[in-house]
């Protein structure tokens, strides 16, 4: 059985998803693509044998020849397109964030609950990274004792110009909001954000430091430096009662050259997480073929990440510790 996938959004991320589906995923075909820029869609389709260009996003979602939809369109379109997929009864993998507001995330959760089945997966690809999975599995094994701290670092070489201080939280640090909850397997009680002074490399944003407190008392700290200059990097160290677990450097190649000994760093998140994107696509398609629930972040997880980001933005604005308040989790999500 081949899952016929329709891709909406043929920009950098959409093209990456298309290449992964074409090259690395068994049991799936990229049946159609759509982009508001038709020429961009045609260029992508021409590289993929058998891929059609759809007339509109709505036509692609409604097409009986499309079994599942992958959304890599601009953030503001995530909610309406995901809602259209739910209305059509089609499974959908939507790039993060699930929507550009907490209310829109909630509307997606409500629509899915009303439909009575989990159709939505959010593209929080770090959940498919071998390193973060290792942290979670190591904690779950019980041999490390209880978690105490999770130290995280997230740095961009130079973030795009549109990334302002609020988006450092809502667009970049939202990854840590999701992955720390995934690794620790519990929700947050509160968040505190402290901005650093703006780097001389950017006037439009400040680096941010965030402390998340989980309900059981684990402390998660995240440094996000959007203009680190030297490259893209994430770090993670989980401190437990009986030891620690850390993400290994990526790529795992040490170099000694010109008087320097150390690890290479990537330019941006795409090469750093190429394996995670691949595994995400493979496991999404495998679940579709098996008829089981999606294995990645659910619509509920997407909602919680956005609710946490909203609390972080409130903390930044008020310069104070802010509680993360969540409604009860609907039974659909276990
Ligand atoms: C970007 O939007 C992403 O989603 C990347 O994964 C993240 O690392 C980067 O900081 C964001 O700006």
Q: Which features characterize this protein?
A:
alpha/beta; binds (2R,3S,4s,5R,6S)-2,3,4,5,6-pentahydroxycyclohexanone; Rossmann fold; 16 strands; Dihydrodipicolinate Reductase, domain 2
Quick take:
By secondary structure, this protein is an alpha/beta fold. It has ten helices and 16 strands. It has two domains: 3-126 and 276-298, NAD(P)-binding Rossmann-like Domain (Rossmann fold, 3-Layer(aba) Sandwich), CATH 3.40.50; 127-269 and 307-323, Dihydrodipicolinate Reductase, domain 2, CATH 3.30.360.10.
Write the layout of secondary structure elements.
Layout: E1 3-8, H1 12-24, E2 28-34, H2 38-47, E3 52-53, H3 57-62, E4 68-71, H4 75-87, E5 92-95, H5 102-115, E6 120-123, H6 130-141, E7 147-155, H7 165-184, E8 188-195, E9 208-214, E10 219-225, E11 233-240, E12 243-246, E13 254-257, E14 260-263, H8 269-272, H9 274-290, E15 297-298, H10 299-318, E16 322-323
Parallel strand pairs: 1-2, 1-4, 2-3, 4-5, 5-6, 7-10
Antiparallel strand pairs: 6-15, 7-11, 8-9, 8-16, 9-10, 11-12, 13-14
(2R,3S,4s,5R,6S)-2,3,4,5,6-pentahydroxycyclohexanone binds next to helix 7.
Report on this structure.
The chain has two domains: 3-126 and 276-298, Rossmann fold, CATH 3.40.50.720; 127-269 and 307-323, 2-Layer Sandwich (Dihydrodipicolinate Reductase, domain 2), CATH 3.30.360.10. The chain contains ten helices and 16 strands. It has 334 residues and is of the alpha/beta class. Helices cover 39% and strands 25% of the residues. It has a seven-stranded mixed beta sheet, with helices on both faces. The chain has a seven-stranded mixed beta sheet with strand order 12-11-7-10-9-8-16, covered by helices on one side. The protein has a two-stranded antiparallel ribbon with strand order 13-14. Strand 1, helix 1 (12-24) and strand 2 form a beta-alpha-beta unit. The longest helix is centred in the middle third of the chain and has 20 residues, at 165-184. Helix 4 (75-87) packs parallel to helix 5 and helix 5 (102-115) packs antiparallel against helix 10 (299-318). The site of (2R,3S,4s,5R,6S)-2,3,4,5,6-pentahydroxycyclohexanone has 6 residues, from helix 7.
